[in-house]
Write a structure and sequence with these properties.
Mean pLDDT: 95
Largest sheet: 7 strands, antiparallel
Structural class: alpha/beta
Low-confidence stretches: none
Distance between the termini: 22 Å
Number of strands: 25
Helix content: 10-25%
Bound molecules: flavin-adenine dinucleotide
Length: 586
């Protein structure tokens, strides 16, 4: 791979076969795959810098240092969320090579087979079925031993993993008493919390060991490390440069006889002050700006809802009311329980030294206790479904993810002092609860005709009573989990929300409104739909409806949010799209 800092440095008289707008999870993967054909020249244009040399992208436990760095993120905020007391929340998106795969939590979860089958049914594309996509994902994966050389047997099912792909995945964990206690729950309460050998086998329900995108030195594996860095010099990467628009190719003006515009051009600029340049691709332009960047680029280019574009003085080239609509994200709350389990607080400098020398210690995971995940499927007669129909894609899908984060004396003391004075105990265990299948929908809209102004980001969180009801049952399920007798001497009542005062629906709703947050697994803002459908933004071949030479490959094309974390789905879709493109141009 060859890096360039400015468009003026690019080789003159070189016409690229493919130009990719955005070098993130989807874009980086497609770039690396297309570059496997040495005859093709590929250009990736990324708004942020290269990941190379940014230490915080390497130890998974430093992901927060990237997420909180204004030079490496877009600094987005949501609109006031009416379902959450009009709170405005930050909406982190990475602005660097690898995109969010360079700073995310590293969880690798493929969701349930029902998610993929639902996508196939919604889009009419059988290639998206689980049975096909499992093979695609396995071929991209290289499942390796963890850095601490801890046994992984019993932590995964080898039959559903790949061992020769480019993306490293491992079952990294640490030895900690909670591990066995959670396994004890699977024996005591197997109906609600069964043991699950592999969270990536298509039916993630139960207590599983966590899998993460890390190699056997506990170093992050991202689209940049797995796919871009491993490419030959036919892959060019232009960093610190924005794609401001996609443009129609000179050979196909929108005024020509065909009603389909050929968008094989890109307009780019270093910043708002610089002169904009244009480049044209011989074969295709691929937009991979992510769930926010992609609809922004499309709308700035005149592909979007005519009335909205007109109001901003942008000429509509392809009127598509679906662009930027359907933006969806999961909703999470963090709950705290008092505990006598040893705290996992650590000294950062010592942890960095340990990671540097032995690739072990607290920085091997995005939070110290990400060892296991509890996936809960609510019963058919759950009170949640009196509020609305079951939003999950089928019986193999969980509704709730229960994610153990850390045991802290620091938060323990402050939580108890602020929220539950008088409650005994100094340590608290922090648990993230995620509503995996929100029915609330939001939107991404342009705030101005300038591609450098942040768009209006409205995830519409908690707009539906059903989303509250599912989270309430998730909190209750977690409270039942810690009431198991195996926790009798180690985990006590929930301190936030305080169990004794928060058993009513109203009290839990107040807590959810106060504490709900986007889980940053957004998707669906340029949704895939069947070819010929009157709704949706891309066809099953990822081509943008009403255009030629233009595809979108990232989380924005998700037809719905899957049952879990989202990067495995972006990798899977990017692998599938790359195969389609290779076949088409073979
Ligand atoms: C803090 C955080 C933690 C997460 N944790 C997990 C996790 O543990 N497990 C998991 O599976 N998922 C996780 N996710 C979600 C997951 O990382 C994303 O769903 C996925 O990476 C999105 O991939 P993408 O290709 O759609 O977008 P991105 O990876 O965001 O890529 C988009 C790229 O396009 C670039 N770009 C945008 N606009 C332009 C423009 N105009 N010009 C040039 N470049 C542009 C961006 O800078 C970025 O590099 C997390 C996300 C966040 C933010």
């Amino acid at each position: 791979v060859v890096f360039f800092e400015s468009v003026d440095e690019l080789p003159r008289n070189l016409e690229y076969d493919f130009i990719i707008a955005g070098g993130g999870t989807g874009g980086g993967t497609v770039a690396g795959r297309l570059a496997e054909n040495p005859k093709w020249k590929i250009l990736v244009i990324e708004a942020g810098p290269s990941n190379e040399g940014i230490f915080a992208t390497m130890p998974p436990g430093l992901s927060g240092q990237v997420s909180n760095n204004p030079n490496l993120t877009w600094g987005y905020f949501t609109t006031p969320q009416s379902g959450m007391n009009d709170r405005v929340t930050s909406y982190s998106r990475a602005k660097l090579l690898g995109g969010c795969s360079s700073h995310n939590g590293g969880g690798y979860t493929r969701g349930s087979r029902d998610d993929w089958d639902r996508w196939a049914n919604v889009t009419g594309d059988n290639g998206l079925r689980w049975d096909n996509m499992l093979e695609v994902m396995k071929q991209g994966e290289n499942f390796v031993n963890n850095s601490a050389h801890l046994p992984q047997q019993g932590h995964f099912d080898p039959s559903v993993h790949g061992f020769n792909g480019k993306l490293f995945v491992s079952a990294t964990y640490t030895i900690y008493p909670l591990n066995d206690l959670l396994l004890g729950v699977t024996k005591e309460l197997p109906d609600e919390f069964p043991f699950l050998l592999d969270e990536n086998g298509g039916r993630p329900i139960g207590v599983s060991w966590a899998h993460r995108t890390e190699d056997s030195t506990a170093t992050r594996s991202s689209s940049a490390t797995a796919f871009i860095e491993t490419s030959g010099d036919n892959l060019h990467v232009l960093v610190n440069t924005y794609v401001t628009r996609v443009l129609s190719h000179p050979s196909s003006s929108p005024l020509s006889s065909s009603s389909i515009t050929d968008f094989r051009g890109v307009e780019l600029a270093k910043d708002a002050q610089s002169r904009r340049k244009t480049l044209f691709a011989k074969k295709e332009v691929i937009v991979a700006g992510g769930v926010i960047g992609t609809p922004q680029i499309l709308m700035n280019s005149g592909i979007g809802p005519r009335e909205e574009l007109k109001a901003l003085g942008i000429k509509t080239l392809v009127d598509n009311p679906s662009v930027g609509k359907n933006f969806t994200d999961q909703i999470s709350v963090v709950v705290f329980f008092n505990t006598t389990l040893p705290n996992t607080d650590f000294d950062l400098d010592q942890a960095i030294a340990e990671w540097n020398t032995t690739h072990t210690g607290p920085l091997i995971m995005s939070a110290p206790l990400k060892n296991q995940i509890v996936w809960v499927r609510l019963k058919d007669d759950s009170p949640a479904f009196e509020v609305g129909p079951d939003p999950s894609p089928g019986e193999n899908a969980p509704h709730i993810e229960v994610n153990t984060n850390a045991v802290s004396a620091i938060t323990g003391a402050s939580v108890n002092a602020q929220l539950a004075p008088g409650v005994n105990g100094t340590n608290t265990i922090q648990i993230s609860l995620i509503n995996l299948h929100p029915v609330s929908r939001g939107s991404i809209k342009l705030s101005s005709p300038s591609p450098f102004d942040p768009p209006i980001i409205d995830p519409g969180l908690l707009n539906s009573p059903l989303d509250f009801a599912v989270l309430r049952e998730g909190i209750r399920s977690t409270q039942r989990l810690f009431l198991a007798s195996v926790f009798n001497t180690s985990v006590f009542g929930s301190v936030y929300p305080l169990e004794s005062t928060s058993s009513s629906d109203e009290a839990l709703d107040t807590f959810i409104k106060d504490e709900g947050a986007p889980y940053l697994h957004g998707g669906c803002s340029a949704m895939m739909s069947p070819r010929g459908a009157s709704w949706g933004v891309v066809d099953p071949d990822f081509g943008v409806k009403g255009t030629k030479g233009l595809r979108v490959i990232d989380a924005s094309v998700f037809p719905s949010i899957p049952s879990g974390h989202t990067q495995a789905h972006v990798y899977g879709l990017a692998e599938r799209a790359s195969r389609m493109i290779k076949e088409m141009w073979a």
